[in-house]
């Protein structure tokens, strides 16, 4: 009995040691994650500080740009009318109606803070993705690391392209429509600055997130959740979903505007199919090589 008790005690101590080791490992990971998050937060703080420093340019040129008839998009649209007169004079936008006001005591102060933080997050996205990669990288096998090589670069580039597309295409077209839309001449369009900033940030950052579709499909394809056969079979449903997204993102009755927004989404979907097919071919090649080696 005494030997059994001693063995039980030793077993309990060993199990306790394993549990403590597991707990320490978990807390070590939490500590590493905390360090990565702090560095990412520091990057956001730095970019936010730069936004405060250059706030006159940020607000007058960037944020209020789509509200000005001198905005790059509107000037290009007028040049297109000169080249293609069939587009009609309405396609050339020379004035943006609608008055923007502030209705809160601290409205302009919170506007500056919110817009600077938002700018800091947008410019800090590449570094945030880099810190995320540094945290995940040690848990990956060598083959997985090679497969995910370039993740930060491609994800950052796609996000940047999406932000630029949203800012220069979707945002001005939507603002022009919404500021000029009226159900009655007795109603004057007057918007709060919070509403304007919310619209600009949502359209811009939202488009940047949507442009991450190939990266999402890449990750899902690696885990076998998404396949090119499924995406090809679901293409007709994807077309409907993309058109719905384009209609929601651009609240205009103009079909041409909706198609302009939907076109890059179609390209992203086809690119995602290509990426998924490439991953599937690579997996089949590796599986065939392993099977062949075993048979040999």
Describe the structure in your own words.
One of its GO terms (cellular component) is TAT protein transport complex. One of its GO terms (biological process) is protein transport by the Tat complex. It is built from eleven helices and two strands, in the order H-H-H-E-H-H-H-E-H-H-H-H-H. The chain has a two-stranded parallel ribbon with strand order 1-2. The chain is an all-alpha fold. Helix 6 runs antiparallel to helix 7 (193-210). The protein has a domain at 2-88 and 98-211.
The value of Rg in angstroms is 27 Å
Pattern of helices and strands: HHHEHHHEHHHHH
Overall mean confidence score, pLDDT = 81
Strand fraction equals: under 5%
The residue ranges in which pLDDT falls below 50 over 5 or more consecutive positions are 5-10, 16-24, 290-296
Largest sheet: spatial strand order: 1-2
Distance between the termini: 55 Å
Count the strands? 2
> Describe the biggest sheet?
2 strands, parallel
Overall geometry comes to: flat
Label the structural class.
Answer: mainly alpha
Determine the fraction of residues in helical runs and give it as a percent range. Answer: over 70%
Counting DSSP H or I runs of 4 or more residues, the number of helices is 11
Protein name: Sec-independent protein translocase protein TatC
Membrane topology: Multi-pass membrane protein
Organism: Pedobacter cryoconitis
Transmembrane segments: 37-55, 109-130, 151-175, 195-225, 237-253, 259-277
